[in-house]
């Protein structure tokens, strides 16, 4: 406990009272506020005289709370200064005591109570902050990982997301899927580099821009150009960029236009095997080359098909067996081949299939990935 008292007689009396009533307390005495400010960081509680020569009014209390906001503070007042003591409590002190009217047991109890109360306040504040943080994460999750707008009964979409092991909050992975009036199915998945709330909020901005422009029927080139402008305007650092894969499946579901900006190409799942779609050109991520247009690659699709779109967190883990080699796309397709062979009826439970895929990749990595993982399974069936 830090005793801040300039009157040696009063300080001696306090030490004597505590020596009998609370011998476990280590009392350090200082005679000025300036010295108290240097020592307050190591104290669990401060017993502060409001009548110090180098402070006036409640200034000493304010300065100590500013220097050590987590430390409990009790104030000492003279006879007839009860109002000033109540004012101090209103300014953040845990309690006030009147000199000459406190015995050892009362003083010790007040100190213990102040320390416990201050700790309880910290715990309560931490719980409140955790709750607010959880609510903010939920809002960000709704913005990053929305409900798909699909009408075609032949088409299904299954999504999976897992945060990286470095945190339990969302990163910058985002996705969306929309079927527009002419029957074209638009699917997009992206990843803002970096981690944290700023990146997640930027991902929400980009996803909403993509959805709004796609629903408005704007050409793909305009959609991506506008997304890049939003990214540049909203990012909190100039080195922030975003990778992106976008797919537009024709109304007859037999072909798709694909655009890649620094992002892995989709994987098509055939019976018993998986293969990466052959895309002509992969452009630099959004935010690195303003003013360019993303080239389109058109691919033919079979009568029934399934595409896997994912963020690079899925392939950045290790290959297992003590190897430090990254899984990569070849390793991912190998995992998919084994899974497709072992679960030929997986299409009836795509969510379970996606969970098992992510689980197997994590097992090879030796645990959850450092980066977030988002993945989509999009399927088209004739029945």
Automatic annotation (TrEMBL):
InterPro entries: Bact_Sigma-Reg (IPR052016), CheY-like_superfamily (IPR011006), PPM-type-like_dom_sf (IPR036457), PPM-type_phosphatase-like_dom (IPR001932), Sig_transdc_resp-reg_receiver (IPR001789). It comes from the Bacteria. One of its GO terms (molecular function) is phosphatase activity. One of its GO terms (biological process) is phosphorelay signal transduction system. The modification 4-aspartylphosphate is found at residue 49. Coiled coil: none annotated. Keywords: Hydrolase, Phosphoprotein. Pfam families: Response_reg, SpoIIE. Residues 1-114 form the Response regulatory domain. SUPFAM superfamilies: CheY-like, PP2C-like. This is Response regulatory domain-containing protein. It comes from Capillimicrobium parvum.
